[in-house]
Design brief:
15 strands, alpha+beta, about 375 residues, nine-stranded mixed sheet, about 35% helix, four-stranded antiparallel sheet, about 30% strand
Length: about 375
């Protein structure tokens, strides 16, 4: 048997994707700009299942592994995809349920219909960092799933074998599983421009990772799964009175942020990034009903970071996705000092030391 293994990194949005024009196809209400990470990854292995095995439905929980079987409606109701998840082992309480696995199965069906795949598949996916806590595990997960499944159907051996039009196609497919997943198909600094007039929009690398080497240190204050999913938060965004104001100024902020990257102006980039993160969480807090992803610990930390910067201790900026855990963006040479200073003041559950990376990897493994 041939296994296609994709490794895809998470990404962190400097300019957030928050609020959408439609769910299917997934169209963002505003442009976003992210950095693709290097060490926080999802690993997904996909292989075609022989028909005689795909017709035997089994399921349930295996040792340290959750597995379910889903009918291949686009092939035959008697064939089943086998979807397995290996929970991240860090003492956390990951909740893997049938809905999560069904989303993976739905994405497999979508990829198969789009690319013309003709077999049931076995999917095993895992993360090396916590899931469901606002660290973009869905971005890396659906990016890896899309790459590995496409490679299985197309017989592609390495990620470099995909040409640029194919990578763009994969990115547009990945975002249907999770909007931010499309950005994880590229390394470095990546934009997602979603058209307001119904066109497909675009996902593209703006600058490679080496253009402006930056570190991302993630301070994990809680590994408890968030009570309101990102998907539900997106749905509520339009109920906020602040939402339209953010939409109106998003294009200007995107242009200014891209210009800061172009000129390698770290200070201006950081200021814009923090403003956008605060805007996003302001929308969450003023939605109906309100959604609070930030905790007292994360708010204290953000205020402390600003005070350290203002007194000249170091230059670093925060951003926070839909969760309580804070990303600190800094220059690579300052990362160790920042970590040491933080740990002198705050108790955190864990620290994820990361930096900008070059995007997905793929290998074909023969059993």
């Amino acid at each position: 048997m041939i296994i296609y293994e994709a490794v895809a990194p998470a990404n962190i949005a400097l300019l957030k994707y928050w609020g959408r024009l439609s769910l299917r196809p997934r169209r963002a209400a505003t442009p976003s700009l992210s950095v693709t990470l290097s060490r926080s990854v999802s690993v997904t292995r996909v292989e075609a299942i022989p028909e005689q095995e795909a017709t035997i439905k089994q399921g349930g929980h295996q040792a340290k592994q959750v597995t379910m079987f889903f009918p291949c409606a686009d092939l035959s109701p008697n064939l089943y995809d086998r979807i397995s998840y290996l929970p991240h082992d860090s003492g956390m309480t990951n909740q893997v349920d049938s809905q999560f696995l069904a989303k993976i199965a739905q994405q497999v069906q979508f990829i198969r219909r789009t690319l013309g795949g003709d077999s049931a598949v076995s999917v095993v996916t895992e993360n090396n960092f916590p899931v469901g806590v606002g660290l973009a595990s869905s971005a890396s997960g659906f990016a890896a799933l899309t790459v590995a499944t496409a490679a299985c159907f197309w017989g592609v051996a390495e990620f470099s074998d995909f040409d640029q039009p194919s990578i763009h196609k994969l990115a547009m497919m990945a975002k249907e599983g999770s909007g931010s997943a499309g950005r994880s198909l590229f390394g470095g600094f990546v934009s997602w421009r979603s058209s307001q007039n119904g066109a497909k929009g675009s996902i593209a690398q703006e600058f490679p990772a080496h253009h402006m080497p930056l570190a991302d240190t993630i301070f994990v204050f809680s590994q408890q799964p968030k009570k309101v999913s990102s998907s539900d938060g997106h749905q509520l965004a339009q109920t906020s009175q602040l939402y339209q104001l953010r939409v109106q100024r998003s294009e200007s902020r995107f242009i200014r942020m891209r210009q800061a990257l172009l000129t390698q102006d770290f200070t201006h980039l950081g200021e814009l990034m923090e403003q956008d993160a605060i805007d996003m969480h302001g929308i969450c807090l003023t939605s109906t009903p309100p959604v609070s992803y930030l905790t007292e610990d994360s708010l204290k930390f953000m205020n402390w970071l600003v005070s350290q910067r203002n007194t000249g201790q170091f230059e670093a900026y925060f951003t926070v996705d839909a969760g309580p855990n804070v990303h600190v963006i800094s220059k690579v040479e300052d990362q160790s000092d920042i970590i040491n200073r933080v740990l002198e003041v705050f108790q955190v559950e864990s620290v994820i030391v990361d930096r900008i990376g070059s995007g997905p990897r793929l290998q074909r493994i023969t059993n």
